[in-house]
Amino acid sequence: MLVCGTNLISLAQLPFPALLVLNKVDNTLVIVDPATNVIVGTVPTGNAPHEVAASSDGLYAYVTNYGPFEPDQPGNSLSVIDLGTRKETRVDVSPLRRPHGIEFAGDKVYFTAELSKAIARFDPQSQKLDWLLGTGQNRTHMLVLSKDLNTIFTANITSNTISMLQRTSGPEEWTETVIPVGKGPEGCDLSPDGKEFWAANSSDGSVSIIDVAEKKVLQTFDVGTKRSNRLKFTPDGKTVLISDLRTGDLVIVDPQARKVTKRMNLGRSAAGILVAPDGSRAYVALSADNKVAIIDLKTLSRAGEIATGRNPDGMAWVGR
What we know:
Thrombin, subunit H
């Protein structure tokens, strides 16, 4: 992808690495310099942006515009943001409705369409959708891709299931295994070694651990959350972080012992979690407090905060 001279000048002003944060009420994406925790740019998005992914080259951000919670106003667009020029291009993904979870992988953008019970793929080169796969499950919300892109996991909130979709060489192309878990699976992540998939069940305070090779739940245990929202592994696989939307807690779990080791109250409405690639710190969106808390992962203590805008949630990292 070519970058014009003007864009090169703008990119020189873009911090690297950079933290991207979505504000769901302001309908904006803010660019934060993680070295100073200062906002260096703000870009408009569509209505009620929920999740964001950055391209591997650091030039673009892709945002799912979920839309307001009114049932007759579901979102149906992605925002493609040029991080160098701070310009947004709106992409209509109709008839898909309520795009939500999003990942950039293999030079493509994968996202869920919650009301459409589907996963879709956007090609940045053609600016078009080039692949679509239905899950048949209700509220297909979050998604996680394996490193080889041959397995896709989705959390289906009101079906109480995880879909495990695997690429095949046969005429079906993809096969789906539907795995029942606890009530309201939402936050989820694949362990760094690819052997386990963890789902935080938002309605019953538990975590379900799926054995990826066996395609079944290995264990379910209680973590005491009132409304778990996101779940993330640290890069070394030694810690799992879970946000509790109702209590504002960050729950820290030892994945080997399968138990909670610490509970930190951060404020109100702990939501999105992003772990820096080097594993040194985590960022937790406190939606009702209009800020993001910074967690030192070595000491498991609060290291600061960033005032980002109204109702922050989804985040992404640019660079390594």
